[in-house]
Amino acid sequence: MKRRILLVDDELAILLTLKTILEIHGFAVETASSAKEAIAKLKTNTYHMVISDMKMEHDKAGYDVIRAAQKTDYAPAVAILTAFPLLGGDWKSEGAQSMLVKPMNTDDLLNRIEVLLIQHEDHKRAGRVPQDQRAKKLA
Asked: What's this model's pTM, rounded to 2 decimal places?
């Protein structure tokens, strides 16, 4: 079974490039070009991971996506994608488990995603996902 990723970015070139890279490496990828679109998809589909740009409709739209992902009953891994690395740990306190800084080379991106997915699955099995995420196996 392919692992499903929701990829969210308002820059079409980045969205299509990352989608292609991830699909070539065996992931099933759905895209959204806004936080609003991503939130709607999170409610109607299930994903193993959500990767969201930070700055879209507003400077912290990525946090809206993270909060929506945390409210799902399938508890996806969550990463923030940004060209502007944030100082401090706001992204962690908002619920993201990783920050991916663009541009990033393909091997680093794939390695970071694999590590995050493995760690997240381990935490789900051990019952250590955030309290507002109810761990449930993906169908």
From this structure: 0.82
